[in-house]
Amino acid sequence: MTPDLLQPEEEDPGWFRSPLQDSCSTAVAQTLSRKHVLLPGPRGPRGLFVVPTAAEVRGEGRPVLVEKAQLVLVLVPPPLRWVRVQVAAVNHSRAQGAVQLSRSEPIRPGPTRSKVLIRKMSGTEGDPVQSGWFCFDPGLSFTSTGSKEVTSFEFVVLLRPSGFRTFPGLAVEVKNEPILGFEAGSPERAELQKALDGLKGRTEEVPCVVGDELVWTKDVRYQLSPFNHSHKVAKFCYADKELIDKAIQASLAARREWDLKPVQDRAQILFKAADVISGPKRAEILAKTMIGQVGDPWRSGDPSGVPVTYDLPLAGVQGKTVVQAEIDAAAELIDFFRFNAKHAVELEAQQPISTKESTNTALYRGLEGFVAAVAPFNFTAIGGNLAGTPALMGNVVLWKPSDTAVSASYAVYRVLRECGLPPNIIQFLPADGPVFGDAVTSSPHLAGINFTGSVPTFKRLWKQVAQNIDIYRTFPRLAGECGGKNFHFVHSSADVRSVVLGTIRSAFEYGGQKCSACSRMYVPDSSWPQIREQLLDIHKDIRVGDPVEDFSTFFSAVIDDKVNLVNLLRLHISSVANLSLWLRPLQSFARIKRWLDHAKSSSNLSIIAGGNCDNSKGYFVEPTIIVTKDPQDPIMNEEIFGPVLTVYVYPEKNYAEVLRLVDNTSPYALTGSVFAHDQKVIDEAARVLRNAAGNYYVNDKSTGSVVAQQPFGGARASGTNDKPGGPHYVLRWTSPRVVKQTHVPLTEWKYPYMG
């Protein structure tokens, strides 16, 4: 490669950028003494990378970074395709091109050779020095012997010598974001402490945002700290119907241009945002998640379903401990952005089969309309994903953040805008639940709802969509995650210590306010004495308090002061089928207290640890362990969303019967764990509990799913199980189009059988 193709980067003389052209005959192959080569990622055409097997390739949406500096990149403009080939003969210089691949251009016709003879391969590797890739026009074919002479400069044969690996040019290799430790004296702890100090006593102003316009309405609210009611974390306002309608129209006007933008360009924004959150904005977003996140007037940030009447325009929040904030607002959010961007880019490489007569191409369009993203209270990452993924796939989005996560959500929104997200692609709209829900479901342009929240609210939205089905231009996509009543099933062969430690973390970390938190536990009578003793021993050391002032806090105050009443009423009446969803909610703190009161008054339940609560300064609830005699008690089948664990001790010999009980007790099917070392029991449990959990663990706790490792979601009452964090999630937010282009004209209308 000639030196003028390499230009030093201004910001780092150790990096180079190569200005490749979108031509199949353009290739770069170079061994450098420098540490890195930085190559622009393809902007539409598919290509091929050839790198040393041991090389680390990191494509973070930015140009592809290749360490060890040996790389070949060939870009392929449509409609050309790649086919694996084996070189049969190359006039005078086969060895030159093959052996010296890392220092020369790929073999192709040139001054010293008039043609290249190749043979199409049939699934075998062949000689690693002679096997390679051939860039060809689908309309051209090989000879009957499987060979082809290449005489045109428009075609490239790229050989892969031994010791090199090959992967598609649009493949992006990313890894999960490392979780920082925040040990005393560490740089990350110092940065976080500085950010936390900057938020103390400060009230952030958070507007509605439509396009580039910051909008304040008269309906002003305040976000409070749950562990200190006197601290107003943020001042924000509700969007009214008029503003929501304005946002819809502005979004629709921007939709077409955004949808036509190459997915690589859209992915670039999320990759850049992930880098920014990983670096300069990490401490700020963590601090806002710790001091001012979560807890919602809708229990889970629901947009509608149970109207709220406020005595004061206040919404409490839930502070997270440093480790919970790091897992959520840093690692998981970054992973969502990076892996979804990777999956979106790679999706375009999934193309239908073409023939010599025609070329078939799949185009992954955004949905025709807008998507409403309704975020929950308990995870900053989920809010960013609910809005960010549809936008990544070419959609325009109305993002309703949770009232009690509004500060952290706004910080994420601003990062996206600063990283290149155009105005009107995501509208930031804090809003009253019913107002937002009614506005979006009554619009004929609704194309989808991306939701995390309660079952009653999701059902109400679904019913509203059904009632309005005749007005829509397209059938709206509904994706929902609605919580769970998650289980730990313990067999007598289980490791007791592992059971205890996993259950403590799953049930009480973050105050049990995870959709995946363990809320019911089934323990054999032979193991219960040991498990009970160890649970109580650890329980004594659990610290509940202010996670900002005391980093040794295990969890903080519970959500806020408002939640759906329906589940409480199920304690006192036989059926709620005829209840209106327009019931006034009770306080979340009061809701958990009612469950504790139920445990204290029921002859079937015994509290063996905790059971107390105090809301004089914050919404604090002790971690509580309850033992039930009745495995069908309401406390075993209704979601509590608090630090309450109920244990049913079963006769060891009845484990098979209890497995069926685990499957049938609750309407939810989100997460669950089986602890056992008897493989026959593990296999039997997997069969019986096949539909009991969308995320199923063996000898591990029911919480802690990691993006791309355990894509998350469940069915039944837990939601639509679309698995955010998995490779197929991005497809949910596309409307694929297939284009067939025929190269051979039709010459006859009759079919052969017609004579």
Automatic annotation (TrEMBL):
Key word Transcription present: no
Protein name: Delta-1-pyrroline-5-carboxylate dehydrogenase, mitochondrial
Record-stated family: Belongs to the aldehyde dehydrogenase family.
Biological processes, Gene Ontology terms: L-proline catabolic process to L-glutamate
Key words, A-Z: Mitochondrion, NAD, Oxidoreductase, Proline metabolism, Transit peptide
Annotated Gene3D superfamilies: Aldehyde Dehydrogenase, Chain A, domain 1 (3.40.605.10), Aldehyde Dehydrogenase, Chain A, domain 2 (3.40.309.10)
CDD domains: ALDH_F4-17_P5CDH (cd07123)
Source species of the chain: Gambusia affinis (Western mosquitofish)
Principal location: mitochondrion
InterPro entries: Ald_DH/histidinol_DH (IPR016161), Ald_DH_C (IPR016163), Ald_DH_CS_CYS (IPR016160), Ald_DH_CS_GLU (IPR029510), Ald_DH_N (IPR016162), Aldehyde_DH_dom (IPR015590), P5CDH/ALDH4A1 (IPR005931)
Compartments reported by the entry: Mitochondrion matrix
